[in-house]
């Protein structure tokens, strides 16, 4: 075997003080042919695609399972266990005692691994361990690698070109034997070198259209310009020029109204190749049907604005304080898909909200008059799983379903057979965040969806309702270089999606977690929120799985929105309310990826979070516990259902504890609110405990708490009451329990939140997760003739384990409410809302005001079980 001297390529700037230690390694025949490049390959034009030889089998980058390797192999590079965190530091969890580490790069993705090292490289650089460890700034940004070793790179390295290559690091023992090798994760160095605050997306002037795309790892970018939304050859293919990671070009004004796609040549870690990716613009503001192409559309054009649009901000209902807010959660399709008073062409879409006298609109007017201030719309951005073209939808004849028994399994069989091809999905599978969903519009091509979305916002404003959008920035539907719905992972692979310490995409949210701890991910989120607020005059945002987003991002978003004024942006940003799900789980739990926007971290920011404590205390257990476990509202101790809760003493303690949790919630779930607990002790809200010692109270001001008892997730309120209460009680009793639950929420300090239909005894036939259960199980009837109870066993996939409990209840006709019950429920609900808005005492604005005025009676060990007695003291001095 012959030894050869390996010297790094001259990607280092000339420096007389810089020296290299040559390393001897065995000369191994290359696994694929080497490309003979000029002396400085990283400073010459880069190849636009990978060579066609030696193709590796594709491997999904989102695989949560580690690869099984018997020895060093090519698959080793599918891992990315090292982190390039700053221009001069690589972090890697290896111990190098007497051996050495090297960085390798290949511009054409030709790296391969053998027991003797890395082959196919254009560049090899020796790394020196930095014994001082990682800088505190790096640890703050990447806390999960705080114990990794720090390895130094030469400070004059041309890192900006190097990040465009396939990269790997390898560790050798003192005999030159390769012991370990892995790919690199690049977000740290990309943030340091390429963070950018300039224009992105498409921009319009009187003479031209400009495009800007952030893609620092791309080797080449082209814009394909099309006349039509689908089919046909490009009118032209325009190369973009790069300046510090941003690719741009300028075209004629005639592009406006056309479509475009980006062609991005970039190394993709999921395939180990330079891939030619075709993607939409991450900053798209218009699309063709199903997001096949990005639409050149100027949202400021007058012909896209409904009459009176520019004055809409002045017509918004007055909100003197966020404490005055109450929220009604609604799915766009649910609102009108089953409403015969709506024109058939408008059902299930944006335009249904523009009618003046449909059953649904009349119901919203009734709620608005009673006090509801905000309608929270489930996802309205471009999401996957529903075809934008209506002619492609499949249906089940509802007349056939109506003839089936109420406890039959046939309904769900027919619905699930077409569930991926029908018109229904909640929409928590985002493709592009910044464009309205095409399936809700009359025409998914062109600007129609934009105009109709604005008309919907305008119509809701006219009946006194502000609009909250459900935003899903915590994950994306697709990843990789080939999926048609993948966008961000084609533009800058490995950057937008959070990866674990093996380099595979985290999936704890459900799939493809995003990484708001990375600068340009955070920027995209904030820019998107500003676009919805300015261009669509949206009044609030509900963040799905907010705990998976960094607190810094949420605060930056709040500040950016709050800075908007009618003069700067056309809206009053100080009246935009944001809230979300502050659950703390997965890789972000306990600040695992940085300080996240969990319930406990977000307090003090003025951002709201859902209070699951009051929900669970009222209903019993949790959505993930025993289905028959009862709570304060569903009959614990006082109306036993046969479930084994323990002894009577245990049940009494459970009921008393649940009452304390509810009382803290009634006091806005404040951390420092002092009350007398069931033992007779004075405790702060944070000293009342649940969930294995987790504090109940966490908020610092009332508007940081969103109190609710039901939402789109899990069973509806009426369904969970029907499941948990004894089978022998009357439907009237269940209706009273439903009213009791909504009344508690309506009279809480903080922000009350209601799922659409809570006020109408809404049922989904006991479906616990109706995200893809079609119109049939999700129907709303605003004529109050039916609450949708007993329309068949709910879909098998999520409910089969509970079918033995569900079936006898659905089969029993006494469980089904009549029209009189529904009408009474609506009247009772609106009456309690009117009480809430009859006095500012029910909407106190500060923690101090709540502590001074809210009192609970019937407390301590001698209290009567099952009774909550609350008083709110009036006075002559100011109420806040």
From TrEMBL:
Gene3D superfamilies in the record: Glycosidases, Immunoglobulins, Rab geranylgeranyltransferase alpha-subunit, insert domain
InterPro entries: GH, Glyco_hydro_13_N, Ig-like_fold, Ig_E-set, Pullul_strch, Pullul_strch_C, Pullulanase_N2
Entry GO MF terms: pullulanase activity
Domain Alpha-1,6-glucosidases pullulanase-type C-terminal: 784-875
GO terms (BP aspect): carbohydrate metabolic process
CDD domains named in the record: AmyAc_Pullulanase_LD-like, E_set_Pullulanase
Domain Pullulanase N2, first and last residues per copy: 80-192
SUPFAM superfamilies with a match to the protein in the record: (Trans)glycosidases (SSF51445), E set domains (SSF81296), Glycosyl hydrolase domain (SSF51011)
Every Glycoside hydrolase family 13 N-terminal domain range: 199-284
Range of residues in the leader sequence: none
Family: Belongs to the glycosyl hydrolase 13 family.
Protein name according to UniProt: Glycosyl hydrolase family 13 catalytic domain-containing protein
Species of the source: Gossypium mustelinum
Lineage, highest ranks first: Eukaryota, Viridiplantae, Streptophyta, Embryophyta, Tracheophyta
